[in-house]
Amino acid sequence: MTRRRQIYEGRAKVLFEGPEPGTLVQHFKDDAYSDGSSRRGIITGKGVLNNRISEYLMQRLNEIGVPTHFMRRLNMREQLVREVEIIPITVCVRNCVAGSLAERFRMAEGTALPRSIVEYYYKSEELENPLVTEEHITAFGWAHPQDMDEIVALSLRINDFLTGLFLGVGLKLVDFRLEYGRLWDNEQMRIVLADEISPDNCRLWDLETNECMDKDRFSRDMGRVEEAYQEVARRLGILPEGGPRDLKGPALMQ
User: Fold this and answer.
1) Which of 35, 55, 68, 228 could make a disulfide contact with 213, Cβ separation 3.0–4.6 Å?
2) Model-level pTM?
3) In the chain, where the domains are located
4) Digits of tens for pLDDT over the chain (254 positions)?
5) Distance (Å, rounded) from C-alpha 44 to C-alpha 193?
6) Helices 46-63, 225-235: crossing angle, 10 deg rounding
7) Superfamily in which the 85-206 domain is placed by CATH
8) Are 147 and 154 in contact (CB under 8 A)?
């Protein structure tokens, strides 16, 4: 078997050279890290579940015309994606007060916001991913003003769609993080959604009990992390009662 060339390794994923020019293989790991601390560990089966959940959500977004880097799932832990030039900004869309927003303003977690808030963080672990403004982004050349207009419009559209999708399965989308990249086709460039959408970068609470169903269970040492990820997958209709295993494709929720 030919050894694949590794392009990049992050906390939750590894990118390998793809089988065709302009493609990459995105491999999902079980590694887990706590935001804002050095705590790390393994969430058994997380990579398998995140691969399936992200596949399902990216497919649904593609169906409504949101451009993404996702092409297809390859196996239990890997998917084929288009190679993009990552914009070094994490976009955070907040629907309720939680996490760092609650800490910064000493507000109660779970407080509903009068409208969704969009925040930007510069992607730099060395600088601890600082909060930045659109003026920083455009002044430092990370993205052009027209790029930001498109990114904000896409983020709010994704938020509207995912909020409704998760409500339909009894989950509240508290906030989530997105990454974007530039996809070049000859001289033409377009902005596409990249990375993943999963309980690793979404805060998901049970609609009735407000029970946390995401990575915060690991970060806050709440226990039952694997069960929470599995429950999200079950509610989306992509995991049988037997637990995580390879399936032919996601069952779309009507």
Assistant:
1) 228
2) 0.91
3) 6-83, 85-206
4) 457 899 999 999 999 999 999 999 999 999 998 876 567 899 999 999 999 999 999 999 999 999 999 999 999 999 999 999 999 999 999 999 999 999 999 999 999 999 999 999 999 989 999 999 999 999 999 999 999 999 999 999 999 999 999 999 999 999 999 999 999 888 899 999 999 999 999 999 999 999 999 999 999 999 999 999 999 999 999 975 455 554 443 333 32
5) 27
6) 30
7) ATP-grasp fold, B domain (3.30.470.20)
8) no
